[in-house]
Amino acid sequence: MRQKEQIAQGKVIDITEVFDTTPERLFKAWTNEKDFAAWFGPEGFDAFYCKLDVRVGGNWKAGIATKEGEEHWFEGEYLEIIENEKLLFTFNHWSEHIIAGEETIVNVRFSKANNQTIMHFNQAVFKTVESGNSHNTGWLSTIICLKNHINKSG
């Protein structure tokens, strides 16, 4: 994985990843329900629910589960959308072990670089370093799933 990673030193996640695809294809992977459900979640999780209302003020919600049935839910609201360039949305996560209430902002940007796309992912601000580091680990694995999905589906 050709990735520049900055572990959440404090309460922010910054990940930059290069994909062998177009910004349009990568943007679609984030905004099309079928695509999103195919890759969303860390390795070992499957998305069983996905609803995306991709418009400013629209909501999104996804449910993922382990093979043992442990569920995690995520939801938020789209704040800014620039087609094929940027997604800005709120992010809430809860499960049996996590109580909702820690809302963060996710900023995903796509830029063309020759025949590739650079995706810059930022999530902030976490209440604790531990929470930021936990999400960082999850997102690093999730981005591997996204890369695998893009490589398989074109």
Uncertain residue ranges: 1-8
In the CATH hierarchy, what is the architecture at level 2?
2-Layer Sandwich
Structural class: alpha+beta
Distance between the termini: 18 Å
Summed up, the domain count is 1
- CATH-level-4 superfamily name: START domain
Instruction: Please give the count of helices.
Output: 3
What is the helical fraction, as a range of percent?
25-40%
Order of helices and strands: EEHHEEEEEEH
The biggest sheet amounts to: 8 strands, antiparallel
Strand order of the largest sheet: 1-2-8-7-6-5-4-3
The whole-angstrom Rg is 15 Å
What is the CATH topology? Alpha-D-Glucose-1,6-Bisphosphate, Chain A, domain 4
Mean pLDDT: 89
Global morphology: globular
Strand content: 35-45%
Strand element count: 8
- CATH first level: Alpha Beta
Please describe what this structure looks like.
The chain is α+β, with helices and mostly antiparallel strands and 154 residues long. The chain has one domain: START domain (Alpha-D-Glucose-1,6-Bisphosphate, Chain A, domain 4, 2-Layer Sandwich), CATH 3.30.530.20. It is 27% helix and 45% strand. The protein has an 8-stranded antiparallel β-sheet. Strand 7 (104-113) and strand 8 (116-124) form a beta hairpin.
